[in-house]
Design goal:
alpha+beta, Heat Shock Protein 90, 6 helices, 22% strand
């Protein structure tokens, strides 16, 4: 509102000032739109209004599509994206919702990584569970933050999170989508070394 008031008070007649203020207004509007969309999305998931329709999904292909979408952001920070999942691995999931989870987690792994770091996505199957791991080489998360990391609006570093443009709801959405699949989301982290987020999904019965 301050930017708009300043423009209304005459700054609009100063091209450079007007450009700078309008750019700030646009950034704030985009951030607000993202926040509203995430709130609506999370509310729909929590209420059961979001239908999850699991089917066999080739995991490596989905990860490659995710990397393509986030490639520019990774390039800006010189973060390498590494897909370690074999091409013959299938998981039982709603492809759109799994891609949403992976995109949120890989995006976070890029944003909170060190410049020149890497993000590795891998898979393991143990018993009746598939696990997709997203590992980064960032600063890691202090132990006291881990129990609350999937809570809505919880941020480890509020100032840095705002600067990176997140809404604070991405991890909560991941957790609830994983649970909608009958699975779970978790994290392990070592300060100074990085974090690994895991999406756990049930193996389809015939697997």
């Amino acid at each position: 509102i301050t930017f708009v008031e300043t423009l209304a008070d005459g700054a609009v007649n100063e091209p450079e000032t007007a450009r700078r203020f309008l750019s700030a207004v646009l950034r704030n509007a985009e951030r607000m739109r993202g926040l509203i969309n995430d709130i609506l999305e999370l509310s729909a998931i929590e209420s059961g209004a979001v239908a999850v329709e699991p089917a066999p999904v080739r995991l490596s292909t989905l990860i490659s599509e995710c990397f393509t979408a986030l490639g520019s952001r990774a390039d800006e920070r010189r973060v390498a994206l590494v897909n370690e999942v074999p091409t013959d691995v299938f998981v039982h999931a709603d492809a759109r919702r799994l891609e949403q989870m992976l995109t949120n987690l890989v995006d976070n792994a890029v944003k909170f990584n060190r410049e020149g770091g890497e993000v590795r996505v891998s898979h393991e199957r143990e018993g009746a569970r598939d696990r997709v791991h997203i590992a980064d080489t960032g600063e890691g998360i202090a132990p006291e933050h881990l129990p609350r990391i999937f809570e809505r609006f919880y941020r480890v570093d509020r100032a840095r999170s705002r600067a990176m443009g997140g809404t604070g709801l991405g991890l909560a959405i991941v957790k609830h989508l994983a649970r909608a699949h009958g699975g779970e989301a978790s994290v392990r982290s070592t300060p100074g070394q990085g974090s690994t987020f895991t999406v756990e999904l049930p193996v389809r019965p015939e697997s």
